[in-house]
Write a structure and sequence with these properties.
The structure holds two protein chains of two kinds. By secondary structure, chain A is an alpha+beta fold. Chain A folds into two domains: about 100 residues, no CATH class; about 70 residues, Nuclear Transport Factor 2, Chain: A (Roll). Chain A is about 60% helix and about 20% strand. Chain A has a three-stranded antiparallel beta sheet. In chain A, helix 1 packs parallel to helix 5 and helix 4 packs across helix 5. The longest helix of chain A has 25 residues. Chain B folds into two domains: about 110 residues, no CATH class; about 80 residues, no CATH class. Classes of the chains: A alpha+beta, B alpha+beta. At the A-B interface, helix 5, strand 1, strand 2, strand 3 and helix 6 of A face helix 4, helix 6, strand 1, strand 2 and strand 3 of B. Chain A: This is COMD7 protein. Chain A: One of its GO terms (molecular function) is NF-kappaB binding. Chain A: One of its GO terms (biological process) is negative regulation of DNA-templated transcription. Chain A: Pfam families: COMM_domain, COMM_HN. Chain B: Pfam families: COMM_domain, COMMD9_HN.
Chain lengths: ~180, ~200
């Protein structure tokens, strides 16, 4: 492949890697590329598949751009193209790393929290109450479904919860 | 809640046969805490000595239950208010004893009523820990701190009378989620102070 087209192809590849959900767009861009350069789509797809293995493997093994470049050269790519790819890799790797971390297993991930608070005016047991309650709705991702959990807290519980969460924040910050 | 009827309160005079003041006190507490459905067994247990027949026992227990609940409902904290509930010819000493017992217990009973109110599941306890994720199948080396929060939640007390179900829910929060949550909690705190200062 002449270098201009190689750059174009690399761009398409990295755009897909940084936005893995845009599968349709990726496939469209690939077939456009194939038509523009008079290559047939089938073999192009196979080549692309093998090329994609390199960045994925690189992520898993935390390879530096030089290592990626060396890998490509070992695979038979010209130095110029390998360097270009490595450059693209360097530029995109923060995004790719963040995506990989985001994909890491999370147990019962908290996705959303809604709340309301109010005053209990009365009940069937007590004519006048006047106590404050806080209600939280936690949206939790369990596997591929979401579950809503509703909890009620008293005011002292709320303040203690807030205090604990601030301690967690301090702890998390000291580790980043 | 309807006012307690005079005929009902007359049944309380069976208490005159009680062996001691403590027995009366005990019975008052049990009658308040019991639900209307639980009064039957209470009548059977408490009353071979106090009542001539099962019907009298039931009336006694039911009257005590209604009286104590009525006082707590209306928050009658003054002796005069409670004394005025009794009918004219009610036994003087018994009236004073019952009023005294009720006044002693009223704030504990009020707390009990509030604790057993209907509500959404309540938070009972919470624990947390911070882990550092070092690797995963998608990336071999990283150092990402994450928080695991365990909430112990008790189902509505009114639904499971004697054995409330406590479930533990473990939730994972990333740093971003925690920051967003803290923002939300901060807003709640600000609104609470605004309400408190009005």
């Amino acid at each position: 492949l002449p270098s201009q087209q190689f750059s174009a192809l690399t761009e398409v590849l990295f755009r897909f890697l940084t936005e893995p959900r845009e599968v349709e767009r990726f496939l469209t861009q690939l077939s456009d590329f194939a038509t523009m350069n008079k290559i047939s789509v089938g073999p192009l797809k196979n080549i692309v598949k093998s090329i994609l293995l390199v960045p994925n493997g690189a992520l898993k093994r935390n390879l530096s751009p030089e290592q990626v470049r060396a890998d490509f050269i070992a695979l038979g790519l010209s130095e110029e193209k390998a360097s270009y790819f490595a450059e693209q890799w360097k530029v995109n790797s923060p995004t790719l790393t963040r995506l990989a971390v985001g994909q890491t297993l999370m147990i019962n991930q908290l996705i959303d929290m809604e709340w309301r608070f109010g005053v209990t005016a009365g009940s069937s047991e007590l004519e006048k109450v006047g106590s404050i309650f806080l209600q939280l709705k936690l949206v939790i991702k369990k596997g591929s479904q979401t579950e809503n959990v509703y909890i009620e807290l008293t005011l002292p519980q709320f303040y203690s919860f807030l205090h604990e969460m601030e301690r967690v924040k301090t702890s998390l910050e000291s580790f980043s | 809640m309807a006012a307690v009827r005079d005929e009902e309160l007359a049944a309380l005079q069976s208490l005159l046969k009680a062996p001691s003041r403590d027995a009366v006190r005990q019975l008052c507490q049990e009658c308040f805490s019991s639900s209307p459905a639980g009064l039957g067994p209470l009548a059977q247990r408490a009353c071979p000595g106090l009542a001539a027949d099962p019907e009298e026992a039931e009336q006694l227990v039911s009257a005590l239950h209604n009286l104590t609940r009525h006082v707590v409902y209306h928050s009658l904290t003054r002796a005069e208010d409670i004394l005025s509930l009794f009918p004219e010819n009610f036994h003087q000493n018994l009236k004073n004893l019952l009023t005294k017992i009720i006044l002693e217990n009223i704030s504990a009973w009020r707390n009990e009523a509030q604790a057993s109110q209907i509500s959404l599941p309540r938070l009972v306890d919470m624990d947390w820990r911070v882990d550092i994720k070092t690797s995963s199948d998608s990336i071999s080396r990283m150092a990402v701190p994450t928080c695991l929060l365990q909430l112990k939640i008790q189902e509505d007390v009114a639904l499971c009378e004697n054995s409330p179900v406590v479930s533990a829910l473990t939730v994972e929060l990333s740093k971003e989620t925690l920051d967003t949550m803290l923002e939300g909690l901060g807003r709640i705190r600000d609104q609470l102070s605004a309400v408190a200062n009005k």
